[in-house]
């Protein structure tokens, strides 16, 4: 009985950690010359874009590219511009 419970708990933890890994949050966005580099809470590189860093949250980064402010999600996908 204990072995079965251990297997179920281990599987539940694995599923939880696997789904969280795909939803990494933005912890830091840094201007590096003409590139903005974005990192998660563990310091892992998420993505980079060219332009000037305007600001960021845990789920978005806004970068000025020419006259446009472009906003990207935590995976580097373009969301919208202003």
Describe the protein in words.
β6 and β7 form a beta hairpin. The longest helix is centred in the first third of the chain and has 20 residues, at 2-21. The chain has one helix at residues 2-21; strands spanning 26-32, 35-40, 45-50, 52-56, 60-65, 68-73, 78-81. Residues 1-21 have low confidence and may be disordered. It has a domain at 25-81. By secondary structure, it is α+β, with helices and mostly antiparallel strands. It is globular, with a radius of gyration of 18 Å. Helices cover 24% and strands 49% of the residues. It has a 4-stranded antiparallel β-sheet with strand order 4-5-6-7, with no helix packed on it. Strands 1-2-3 form a 3-stranded antiparallel β-sheet, with no helix packed on it.
Counting DSSP E segments of at least 2 residues, the number of strands comes to 7
- Going by helix content, strand content and strand pairing, the class is alpha+beta
Q: In DSSP terms, counting alpha (H) and pi (I) runs of 4 or more, how many helices?
A: 1
Helix content: 10-25%
- Sheet-strand content, in percent, reads over 45%
What's the rounded overall pLDDT mean?
Answer: 83
Strand order of the largest sheet: 4-5-6-7
CA-CA gap between termini: 59 Å
Low-confidence stretches: 1-21
Backbone CA Rg: 18 Å
């Amino acid at each position: 009985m204990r072995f079965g419970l251990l297997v179920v708990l281990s599987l539940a933890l694995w599923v939880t950690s696997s789904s969280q890994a795909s939803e990494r949050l933005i912890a830091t966005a840094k201007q590096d010359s003409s590139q903005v580099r974005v990192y998660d809470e563990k310091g892992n590189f998420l993505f980079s874009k060219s332009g000037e860093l305007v600001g960021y949250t845990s789920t978005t980064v806004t970068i000025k590219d020419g006259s446009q402010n472009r906003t990207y999600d935590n995976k580097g996908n373009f969301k919208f511009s202003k």
